[in-house]
């Protein structure tokens, strides 16, 4: 499902040129104001979802919320197919935001609660890998299919996703939190792949009881109070998450991909702008793959700090190229802008993008993990909204160079603050 959501996100950037043309498939061309709002409606939908998602997670469980992810995604593609004006696309993006808002809260928690500490981060990185892989697939599908064919292809994927997750039991943490100990025990055996051999029944039972005590000692069944959010540990976690989310979006990790075609046109690339965007997506996947290989070897800090610093230097270089290179130089060295943007894509995905959801889950105390993740995603949605409203205006009014200087500034700010205060969370227990 993360791949499907990625395809939905990847649809936007390469579709902009045709939507803004006189031959727009929705019957009218969209202007810069429409572009801003179509892009940012994603964050509005995500924010609506993030504000309430932890209530259903707490009452009906994570898995039922995961079922819901597919419905608004399907409706998004239906509206794109039947769109007759930009209002259809506004609503489609709101629905996509609701789907994504549920996805980015429920999936990382689900993964954290069914996996061992030894490879939990690996699975959470796989979530980001498939999400970003979906964005690249979205770029490719838009380039090689038509506006009305693409929805007919992609709409099958969320339906397939629902069918595939039906056999999976709910996470044992989630069941213990809601007082369903018997189901929690069966779920624990399933995800731990414990044998049903009668001779090992007592051993398995003892292992589950030990797990149950660790989970319950973290206070997951106790009533959550305001004090749980405003103690020293929680406040530090939320402060670090706030800095992380602001840097994640205002450094351009998402907005740059949304407006990649426009940026490559400004940089004088000799390649088709949409092809450049596809190359950028492929490079991002290599960055995420690097993170998967390195995260449990070098730790979170040693991935995040170089990522922020190198991404900032890359964006600064793109800005300087645009500011000081002559049109003649750009015409004959259009490849240089692509190389620098690929450097930005690689360094951002190898650290900042790959680690954001991992760090959110690992920094939050287990007792407030579900509501804390929901609050964090509200912050992410607000950051996405600001970024998607800001970037097209800054690019249009001030140019790519100013946009890149702004993005680099946020990278360097994040490097200073996170480098000073972020603890190493590698190997941190997910049960308390």
TrEMBL record:
It is a multi-pass membrane protein. One of its GO terms (molecular function) is transmembrane transporter activity. Pfam families: Sugar_tr (PF00083). The keyword Acetylation does not apply. Keywords: Cell membrane, Membrane, Sugar transport, Transmembrane, Transmembrane helix, Transport. Residues 1-426 form the Major facilitator superfamily (MFS) profile domain. It is found in: Cell membrane. SUPFAM superfamilies: MFS general substrate transporter. GO terms for cellular component: plasma membrane. The chain crosses the membrane at residues 35-55, 67-84, 90-110, 122-142, 148-168, 237-257, 277-295, 333-361, 373-391, 403-422. This is Facilitated trehalose transporter Tret1 isoform X2. The gene is LOC108049683.
